[in-house]
């Protein structure tokens, strides 16, 4: 019998201080089945503010604050998550035209490894984040995966790295897990150790509990391939330049940790990370959250 995933209901302030645009891009409708619920009493409740529609004397409507408390719950991927997941993946390969719908279908079809994050009892059923890992060899015949690999080869201009990438995606593709993690920008950081820790647990369980030997082998990753978004400062600081460091702005805080643990960097922030470094990443992520 497969293990029942240990999932958390985390009582945290709802990240509702969004612009109207951020609210729109984060919103999708769907019906979700609930994952195993466990209250984490160690997480402290905090307060975030949301602009109220009603103004006060001498203040603009935007200055009025309202505190809302909410529970985040982790769910198994379901077909009804399609539009929400696709919304979060819109810029995954920049402006590349590719089979994004097929890619989302792969993510949602893999229900034993992968998590969708929602608000408890949210009428809108909004997806705030998701994480999964797909074996590039297992799905190599899928149009979306072929297009993704072709895109990576095309944008990797440096000859040495292009050779490494080709070897990875052709000779060792069966051992490569595409780690896909998308979320709204201001998701509470306290969720991240639980989200990534749950993913690594599920991958470990899948190597023992999947119904066929082929499926079990497909989760025996050696490398994680991570595609992320970064910005580079046009006026880099002298201090970082003197140390040979790039002046990078990370859209997701955890990507800086992956960046430091990478085996090598292909281009931009596409990284190859040894699976053995996953626990180091989790430890550093927890430290990052504790310090924030």
Element layout with pairings:
Blueprint: E1 9-13, H1 20-26, E2 49-51, E3 65-67, E4 69-75, H2 82-88, H3 100-109, E5 115-119, E6 129-135, H4 143-155, H5 159-170, E7 176-183, H6 192-209, H7 213-217, E8 223-227, E9 230-232, H8 238-242, E10 248-250, H9 253-261, E11 264-267, E12 270-274, H10 278-291
Parallel strand pairs: 7-8
Antiparallel strand pairs: 1-4, 2-3, 4-5, 5-6, 6-7, 8-12, 9-10, 11-12
Helix pairs in contact: 6-10
Average pLDDT works out at 75
Figure out the total of helices: 10
Strand segment tally: 12
**Structural class from helices and strands?**
alpha+beta
Span from first to last CA?
Answer: 40 Å
The succession of helices and strands, N to C, reads EHEEEHHEEHHEHHEEHEHEEH
Radius of gyration, in Å, reads: 20 Å
State the strand order across the main sheet. 1-4-5-6-7-8-12-11
Taking the sheet with the most strands, its summary is: 8 strands, mixed
Q: What characteristic shape results from the CA principal axes?
A: globular
Helix content: 25-40%
Strand content: 15-25%
């Amino acid at each position: 019998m497969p293990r029942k995933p240990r999932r958390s209901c985390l009582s945290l302030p709802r990240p509702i201080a969004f612009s109207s645009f951020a609210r729109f891009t984060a919103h999708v409708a769907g019906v979700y089945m609930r994952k195993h619920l466990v209250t984490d009493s160690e997480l402290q409740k905090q307060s975030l503010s949301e602009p109220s529609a009603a103004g006060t004397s001498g203040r603009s409507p935007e200055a009025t604050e309202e505190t809302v408390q909410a529970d985040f719950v982790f769910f198994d991927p379901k077909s009804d998550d399609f539009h929400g997941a696709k919304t979060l993946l819109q810029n995954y390969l920049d402006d590349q035209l590719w089979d994004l719908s097929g890619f989302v279908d792969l993510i949602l079809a893999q229900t034993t490894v992968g998590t969708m994050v929602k608000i408890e009892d949210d009428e809108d059923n909004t997806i705030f984040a998701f994480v999964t890992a797909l074996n590039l060899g297992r799905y190599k015949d899928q149009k979306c995966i072929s297009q993704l690999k072709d895109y990576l080869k095309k944008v990797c201009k440096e000859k040495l790295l292009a050779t490494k990438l080709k070897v990875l995606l052709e000779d060792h593709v069966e051992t490569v897990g595409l780690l896909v993690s998308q979320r709204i920008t201001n998701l509470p950081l306290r969720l991240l150790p639980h989200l990534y820790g749950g993913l690594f647990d599920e991958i470990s369980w899948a190597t023992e509990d999947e119904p066929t030997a082929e499926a079990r082998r497909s989760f025996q990753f050696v490398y994680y391939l991570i595609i992320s978004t970064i910005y580079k400062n046009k006026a880099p600081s002298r201090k970082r330049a003197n140390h040979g460091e790039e002046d990078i702005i990370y859209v997701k805080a955890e990507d800086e940790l992956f960046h430091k643990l990478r085996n090598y960097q292909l281009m931009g922030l596409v990284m190859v990370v040894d699976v053995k470094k996953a626990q180091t990443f989790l430890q550093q992520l927890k430290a990052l959250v504790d310090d924030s």
